[in-house]
Amino acid sequence: MPQKEWPAQYELIKKQSDDEDFLIRLYAAEKDYPALFQAIMDEGYNIQQLVKSHLPNMPVEYHEPLLQRAIYELANEASRASNRKEYTQIASRIRELAKLPGARVLTEALVTRLRSEYRKRPAFIEELSKLP
Hints:
Elements: H1 6-16, H2 20-30, H3 33-42, H4 47-54, H5 63-80, H6 84-98, H7 104-117, H8 122-129
């Protein structure tokens, strides 16, 4: 496709596609950061994976809102967790999220909050205590 025709084709694809995963990959490839940011923020089912995959390549101004969204989802998962396996999975996701640029302070605050909110769940506190 000729280079000059691509912008119009790109807009057409964006309007016609219903495949969110495809669109997220397209936005990332085209470095369409506003569209990528909005698509990730609108996504619910795998927000942590999307943030982990795309945050390092996005401009810094998008980092904190994306991290806050991922942390919000982790806090929601924690509220529904009821056994050690789920607690371990949440702790693992927190550990992975903490490795991202700018996430350390936010994940430490989340862990502090979870320790306070769920102090009557010793297995959860134990799993959180394993975090750095």
